[in-house]
Amino acid sequence: MTVDETDDEAGREDARGSSFAPRHTRRLSDKILIAFHHACDQGDYEVAEELLRILEMMLTRRPVSPDANRRKNMESLVAAHERLWLLRHPDNRD
What we know:
Layout: H1 28-42, H2 45-60, H3 70-88
């Protein structure tokens, strides 16, 4: 499997019928956080805000299983909120 293949291609069969092993990828929440930062870098704050809202929903809903990374995830969420606020209010920097 190549790096250029999408997540949807993981686990599909090739022309000979051999199945590819699903590749390990980042968690969805990590991908959304990356997309948030990319939107900030591009100056698209409306999209960044929506991505942040979705990320917050994912991280604050009741977890099915205990998550050892919950504190780190919440710290990343707070930092993302702070970044977006600072980008939208550049005149209010300390």
